[in-house]
Each structure stands twice: as structure tokens, then as C-alpha cells.
Amino acid sequence: MRKRLSAVKPNRRQILLTGAVAVAGTTGAIVAASHSDAADSGPYGSGVIANWLVLSKAISPETIIKTVVAKDGVFMFGDSIAVQDGKSLAIRLAGRTGDSLAVHNWSGRPTTPAVDALQDWATKYGMPRRILMATGTNDVFNPPVVTTQINRTMSIVGPNRTVIWVNTQMCRTARTAAMQIADQRNSAWINLQLADAQRRYPNLRIVHWAEYLAAKPTRLTAYLSDGVHTTVPYGQDARNELITQALTAAKLALPQARSAK
What we know:
With about 260 residues, the chain is α/β, with parallel strands linked by helices. Helices cover about 50% and strands about 10% of the residues. It is built from nine helices and six strands. α5 links the parallel β4 and β5. α1 crosses α7 and α3 crosses α9. It starts with 11 loop residues before the first helix and ends in an 8-residue tail after the last helix.
């Protein structure tokens, strides 16, 4: 399983080609509930973001957060995919490495408020040495903000912790063909910003979810229910395995002594 799910190492051409492959390989499905149904295609062609504050969320209680910090587990900040898949990931991670996971996942949320949540937890509780950012999908509505938010994240975390960031695959199959193309173009734009940031930050690791899906076009329908969210259990297991591998590798690379805040 680990060998099959090893992430494809990307280059700029591969990331840009992801959009064309994904649009060709998707079929009709339900629309992502976290996004507006308005006809307005927005400034970047993907429409406008809905009011995510009223959508479902999964946030760990303070006791779990403090335990994760004390035991040097993992903080996770994500969107609706993470809301759906977070519990399964926690079980997989605990079984693989014994690590505990504290989550701050919110459907429909873009990256800026996810980084705000990271800042809030860092101020209140401190941080473990691994931070999982499973966010970016909802930035297709405003892709240029991503670089600033990556920089903010790395500044909050500092050089002695590792950020594991899952890149983005977005192609809402219930939308028009034009909007699907915009989704893929904007996803590629977000992923390029992540790839560029990895060159600047040696403690940033990317989970190459988009490239993994594009490597075999049949994965887009087998592993995604609507062009965005994972199918259960196949897509959920595949994505969570990639994340678990990345978190495990990051743990093995950490020095044995706990780094200072």
C-alpha cells in the first residue's frame, strides 16, 4: 500500500497539466455544498465563496489540544474534506505511529481564517513540531492570497517545526464546463504557489494529492465523489495514507530532543 501511494514528485509542467487531465476525466456528481450556486463566476471564474461560518465544523476540545502539545502530536487545520476525513486520519495515524491529532476543521473555509486559527492555538497553547495544513481548496475563489498565507504559516511555526501541506484538487463536476476549467486552473495556481514556497522553506513538505489523482485518470472518479471530496472508503483511505506517510516521515526526521518554542 505504501509503495502504491507514494506521491509523484512534481515539476511545474506536471502541475499545470493536472487541470487538463482532471477536466477530461470527471463525470457528473453532486455539487460541493460549501460553495455558492450563484451565476456570478467571480473574478477568477470559479464563482464566489459561500458563507462558510454557518457550515459544519470539527474542532478538538481544549483538553485534547493540550494533550497533543504535551505529547508532541499533530495539529490539523482543514476544510470540508478534513471535516469528513479527519476522524479516519486520526485512527490511522494513531495506529501507525501512536501520535494524537488535534483538529480545527471547518467546511467551506479558505486558508486565511485557517491560518488565523493556527495563530490562535499557537498563542494559547503552543504547538507540536508537526502542523498539518489540509486547506486551499476554497482558495480557488481568490488564488492570489495563498502565498501570503503560506508565508504567515511559516512565520508562526518557525524553522524548528515541520509544516505538511496537502495540495489542491478542485473540479466541481456539477458546474458548467467553463467553471470546471476555472477550478482546475485556479487549483494549479494554488499548487504552484505551494511548490514555489517549498523552495524557500526547507521545513515545508507537500502532500501531492493533485498529482496522485492525475497520475491515473480513473482515480478522479474512483476517489472523488464530486470532483472535490473523497469517496468513502477508497478516496478517503488513499488521501489519508498519503498524509500519514508524510507525517511519519516528518516525525522520523525530527531530532529526538523536543525543540523549544
